[in-house]
Amino acid sequence: MDSIALRRALGRYTTGVAIVTCVDAGGASVGLTCNSFSSLSLDPPLVLWSLRSVSPSLAAFKAARRFAVNVLSESQVEHSRRFASPVADKFAEGLWALGEHGAPLLAGCAAVFECETRSHQEAGDHHLFIGEVLACSESTLAPLVFHAGHYRLIGEVL
């Protein structure tokens, strides 16, 4: 399989953009941009996301009991870029607060899911994380989406 062709073909599937966060063992906030987030089950309420095995954030997420998925709104593209970069203090921008369940939450998101880690496992060059949703919220803001290597805005509903 040609990995470049596979990546291009997978990029044709439009995804949302989220910042997944947790607090590490030392109490520091950890976060990264993610477009591999998906619903898994309504009963029980489960979601999943994946993280590259070489990510410097992997150890923090494997050790964390809880995490949050902050689904970005259209106006939050700069937050997505910031959390996808190696900048040292990613949480220096934006309105952040610890959620009721202990993970950092970003104000102004399209939706937020506070989760308890149920499992994680290695799968190829990534780790899959499954979380049980403990709390969620939504807004009427349009979500930021990613398609064919670019951020996109949602158009008119047909």
Give the structure's gist in a few sentences.
The protein has 158 residues and is mostly beta strands. It has helices at residues 3-10, 58-63, 77-83, and strands at 15-16, 18-23, 29-34, 38-42, 45-52, 66-71, 96-98, 104-106, 111-123, 126-138, 145-147, 150-152. The strands form three sheets. It has a seven-stranded antiparallel beta sheet with strand order 3-2-6-9-10-5-4. A three-stranded antiparallel beta sheet has the order 1-11-12, with no helix packed on it. It has a two-stranded antiparallel ribbon with strand order 7-8.
Explain how this protein is built.
Helix content is 13%, strand content 45%. The chain has a 7-stranded antiparallel sheet with strand order 3-2-6-9-10-5-4. A 3-stranded antiparallel sheet has the order 1-11-12, with no helix packed on it. It has a two-stranded antiparallel ribbon with strand order 7-8. It is globular. It has a domain at 17-68 and 85-139: Pnp Oxidase, Chain A (Roll), CATH 2.30.110.10. It starts with a helix and ends in a 6-residue tail after the last strand. The protein is mainly beta and 158 residues long. Strand 9 and strand 10 (126-138) form a beta hairpin. The mean pLDDT is 95. It has 3 helices and 12 strands; from the N terminus they run αβββββαβαββββββ.
Unreliable parts: none
CATH superfamily of the domain at 17-68 and 85-139: Electron Transport, Fmn-binding Protein, Chain A
User: Please, how many helices?
Assistant: 3
- Give the fraction of residues assigned to helices: 10-25%
The CATH class of the domain at 17-68 and 85-139 is identified as Mainly Beta
Mean of pLDDT = 95
Can you count the beta strands?
12
User: How far do the termini sit from each other?
Assistant: 37 Å
Classify the secondary structure makeup into a structural class.
Answer: mainly beta
The largest beta-sheet arranges its strands as 3-2-6-9-10-5-4
The largest pleated sheet is described as:
7 strands, antiparallel
**Oligomer kind:** single chain
Query: What spatial form do the alpha-carbon principal axes imply?
Result: globular
The value of Rg in angstroms is 15 Å
The fold-level CATH name of the domain at 17-68 and 85-139 is: Pnp Oxidase, Chain A
For the record, the CATH architecture of the domain at 17-68 and 85-139 stands as Roll
Order of helices and strands: HEEEEEHEHEEEEEE
Work out the strand percent.
35-45%
